[in-house]
Write a structure and sequence with these properties.
Elements: H1 15-39, E1 52-53, E2 57-59, E3 63-65, E4 68-75, E5 80-85, E6 90-94, H2 100-113, H3 144-165, E7 176-178, E8 183-193, H4 206-212, E9 215-223, E10 233-239, E11 256-258, E12 263-267, H5 268-272, H6 277-296, H7 307-310
Antiparallel strand pairs: 1-2, 2-4, 3-4, 4-5, 5-6, 7-8, 8-9, 9-10, 10-12, 11-12
């Protein structure tokens, strides 16, 4: 049986085929995400900056603007950016081979035509090399097939993450995409404050990171990989870190602790090729949360059993 047919038809993801397109699209999402950020009230832990998986791609959701609202969607079916407004305004921008600089210029021209006036900090965050958007003629790759394939994986992952989120009665984030690291994530909170966070993140204010990690968390997510670790992978970590966390039993058996990253990892390929991808991913999410809850002495009453409601 071929890889493409195994695992309930979860798509095959190959980092080297994806990386150039994802580098470009991540920078596009930083521009879109910053537009959302500056027009939203501050929501704890940076939840006002994120994007969401939609039925066609990625979305800002509704953004308040004066007496109206607007929304920006990245459509990975028809490969276009769509800006829609509650006053009836609608504009489109093709997603194709184009530089970050041209995307930035054209998007703000489009917003101006819709009488939406906004300004952003026009440089990337959380990236080692932060070329101003208006000057970035380096990143310009857009492979429509690769982007559609990657988004199809996100759709499946989002569904499992949402189910996992529902199993917790305490404070929990939405399932959302952080454009800084370009990772889809869901985070549970113990309810207790955490020690002041001091790790450095490239081109990111320490104050912002300290607010993001102001409380104890168990966070899980999906990340497309990097040149240092060229594999799309699921991750899980806790803050504050407990030394015993790295030695806790987790599932499936292919999951492992990466000391350099300080995270438990499971390569996407393991889930994609499993007979039951959803169940395999849930095992990873549940067991890594259990590791964080056990070593962090979380209140077990925060877990819930929804079996009776699902019948």
């Amino acid at each position: 049986m071929s890889k493409e047919k195994r695992g309930g038809n979860w798509p095959v993801l190959i980092y080297n085929n994806l990386k150039d397109t994802l580098q470009t699209v991540q920078l596009w999402t930083q521009i879109v995400g910053k537009i959302r950020m500056v027009n939203m009230p501050w929501i704890n832990h940076g939840w006002h900056v994120t994007l969401y998986i939609s039925s066609r791609g990625l979305s800002t959701g509704s953004i308040p603007y004066g007496n109206h609202s607007f929304q920006i969607d990245l459509d990975f079916i028809d490969h276009q950016l769509v800006v829609s407004a509650s006053d009836g305004g609608l504009k489109r921008l093709p997603l194709q081979q184009r530089t970050v600089a041209s995307f930035y210029s054209d998007l703000f021209s489009l917003l101006s035509e819709m009488n939406i006036s906004t300004e952003i900090y026009a440089k990337p965050n959380e990236l080692e090399i932060a070329i101003p958007f208006a000057d970035d003629d380096v990143h310009k790759t857009y492979d429509a097939h690769q982007m559609h394939t990657y988004w199809q994986a996100l759709v499946r992952i989002d569904s499992v993450f949402t189910r996992f989120r529902a199993e917790f009665t305490g404070k929990c984030s939405p399932v959302h995409l952080f454009w800084g690291g370009f990772d889809l994530a869901v985070t549970r909170f113990s309810g207790r404050t955490a020690p002041l966070y001091h790790s450095k993140v490239p081109n990111m204010s320490e104050r912002v990171m300290q607010e993001a990690y102001s409380h104890e968390v168990s966070s899980a997510g999906f990340w497309p990989g990097s040149d240092v670790y060229p594999f799309p992978a699921f991750y899980s970590y806790c803050y504050p870190f407990q030394p015993a966390y790295s030695t806790q039993p987790v599932e499936p058996e292919q999951a492992f602790y990466n000391a350099e990253m300080g995270e438990l990892l499971l390569n996407y390929e393991i889930v994609q090729q499993a007979e039951d991808p959803e169940g395999t991913l849930l095992k990873f999410l549940r067991s890594t949360y259990k590791a964080a809850a056990k070593t962090g002495n979380w209140d077990h009453k925060l877990d819930c059993n929804l079996t009776s409601f699902e019948k």
